[in-house]
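Help wanted!
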Amino acid sequence: KNQGWGNGKTLYQYQGSWHLDKAIEGTIAVQDRFVPCPTDIVLATVPKSGTTWLKALAFAIFNRANTDPNFIKSTFTKTNPQACIPFLEIQLFSNHRITDINIDINRLPPPRLLATHIPFSSFPQSNCKLIYLCRDPKDSFVSAWHFFNGLGAKDGHKPVALEDVFELFCSGVSPGGPIWDHALGYWRESLRRPERVLFLKYEELKENTEKQVRRIASFMGCPFGLEEEEGGVVEEIVKVCSFNSLSCLEVNRSGTTEVAGFDIENRTFLRRGEVGDWKNYLSVEMAERIDRVTEEKLRGSGLSF
Ligand code: A3P
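Answered by r_m:
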């Protein structure tokens, strides 16, 4: 148990990683009751590594041929991507729902698009496809610090100073942490079974979104055809899911989405959306310290940031 992240939110360690109690209860429910299908496609991330973006992209890729040509745009106008593809443990199997999420997982037609923050080692044994997105730990850390302070502020808690959670983060105590172990679990599986795990990096997604969108579509089993390529479908998906498009929508300025029993303001899922925002928050020493931990943790794995 650790209360260092403050804001009335306690993190608990379960099977080696740190989570809110609600996420752990949901994880146990997933481990007990979720029946995976080989056709399932599960988006896996550690919190604050770009889940919202990945959900938007996967949703748009998957639904691009909807009979209603406006389906994707009109969905995003009403719904934050976080609610378009549900988290297994903190939405579908959560005991803490404020409202009824109107999804019966057993009735969803295949392929089911799902999401999770559960570390690979705790995720139920399955043959389902996994798309993992990770991010430079420095940016994830800064993003998480903003996000958790925002969550606490809603309950009247004072913000926690960045310096006060820094050492905790480095020692692995952060939501979903140790963040390095989270990435390594999925990374190793992606090396063992590349047909099962597609491993993506936020920075690469930023650098060439179209290229990664094509990779995601192929992996999901719905590659872009010639007509779609010529018709600019990939470019359109990239645009509709971009930070600028999503953050301008009214639903993402004033709306909320229920996650883990919290009514979370959508704008907090779309804060800055940049690579390297850590430079505005971390001292040179802090950045070097995280980089050192990253290097030590990932040494010999073939994964780097
Ligand atoms: P910042 O806090 O650095 O801005 P998650 O979705 O896993 O909670 O991660 C949130 C982070 O992803 C936030 O990072 C958010 O701004 C960024 N993000 C959300 N949507 C994005 C998009 N469409 N493009 C790029 N970044 C996005």
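OP: Thanks! One thing I noticed: The pocket of adenosine-3'-5'-diphosphate is lined by residues 45, 47-53, 56, 139, 143, 146, 241-243, 246, 269-273, 277 (CB under 6 Å).
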